[in-house]
Amino acid sequence: MNLFAYGTLMWPEVLEAVTSRCMIGTKAVLEGYTRRGVKGEHYPVVIPSLEDSVEGVLYEGLTTQEFQALDIFEGEAYDRVAHIFNGTAAFVYVLSKDWKHIVDSNPWHPEELNAEHLAAFCSEYKGWDDLRF
To answer: Mind listing the pLDDT tens digit for each residue in 70-108?
Structure first.
């Protein structure tokens, strides 16, 4: 199974913290979505937008157990949906319709997640213990 990452999971150290495995991805583009910040947070969401696209990273060969950990990491605000990237099927975590109230009106850019913000995200995330099976 494959994963398209567009936010914190683009950083291999975050993906490794979630899945317990170091992975190297390739650049990919998610068509028909836009990336927005989450109010008061250091991470983004993607929401449908026909005229937009989102650059990210495609990771291939994840296991069912790794996706179980990713489901926990992403939480109830996200739905895991299938998408095709240049002929390759992958899952993407998109914002659930019930959670639109958390979306910031401003776009989110990966360069906004500098080392300081990444460290803050990792220290503020409360679910690390839930990811260990």
So the answer is: 999 999 999 999 999 989 999 999 999 999 999 999 999
Total residues found in the chain within this entry: 133
Q: Which CATH number fits domain 3-131: 3.30.413.10, 3.90.230.10, 3.30.450.40, 3.10.490.10?
A: 3.10.490.10
The residue written with tokens 């109230």 in the block is 101
Residue ranges of domains in the chain: 3-131
- SS3 for the chain is CCEEECCHHHCHHHHHHHHCCCCCCEEEEEEEEEEEEECCCCCEEEEEEEEEEEEEEEECCCCHHHHHHHHHHHCCCEEEEEEEECCEEEEEEEECHHHHHHEEEEECCHHHCCHHHHHHHHHHCCCHHHHCC
Q: Residue 93 in contact with residue 78, Cβ under 8 Å?
A: yes
Which band of pLDDT confidence, cut at 50, 70 and 90, is reported for residue 122? low
